[in-house]
Amino acid sequence: AQKITQTQPGMFVQEKEAVTLDCTYDTSDPSYGLFWYKQPSSGEMIFLIYQGSYDQQNATEGRYSLNFQKARKSANLVISASQLGDSAMYFCAMTAKGNAGNMLTFGGGTRLMVKP
Amino acid sequence: KAGVTQTPRYLIKTRGQQVTLSCSPISGHRSVSWYQQTPGQGLQFLFEYFSETQRNKGNFPGRFSGRQFSNSRSEMNVSTLELGDSALYLCASSPVGRQGAKNIQYFGAGTRLSVL
Predict the structure, then answer these.
(1) How far apart are CA B66 and CA B78, in angstroms?
(2) Which residues in chain A are contacts of B94 at CB distance < 8 A?
(3) What angle do CA A42, B100, A90 make, to 5 degrees?
(4) Angle at B61 between CA A106 and CA B30, to 5 degrees
(5) Spatial CA neighbour of B21 closest among B36, B31, B38
(6) Span A27-44, pLDDT tens digits
(7) Chain A: residue whose CA lies nearest to B87
(8) Strand A10-14 vs strand A74-79: parallel, antiparallel, or unpaired?
């Protein structure tokens, strides 16, 4: 079984500053994928970034980067140059090869609020 | 390319009724997964369909069921509704079915179900 833990229920960040959202995971499967999703108040889950367990480099997608520390089982999301539109819930999720299919296990989420 | 479409967006039902939610995946995607999101339990996996077959199922009672059609569209049904079934129901589709691969799931905007 997999488990995702997000320890920050809510965070504030000043516009244009960088922010790190924490995520730790637990799995006994050596092959897994880690994901971050953004959920605005409208409800839709928006895919941000993916990191595979065998990827040698940290994933980056525009202003988003994933700080992957495999030995510590952490996959923190870094958002550079925060914008007001970044205010939303952020979810860390994972899937593992042992899963029969594409089941995603989600963390409890972090609510990010960007201050002007 | 159109995204994942869920209908209806909002639904109000009373206890004991049944409800059917619909999901049209992104064109070419063959895997469709359903998730329930509540303030208390967070995001929980319901089931996944691939090539019209249920491939994986979460820990939900038998009142929750689903199916997938030959065009990959999917429906989920909840019978004998309970107050606790009030939630945002999210559908996600992914392009490939290989387990454990980089199967990014793309979500729809969800159906918000209220049970009175």
Answers:
(1) 9
(2) 102
(3) 25
(4) 55
(5) B36
(6) 988 888 999 999 999 999
(7) A43
(8) unpaired
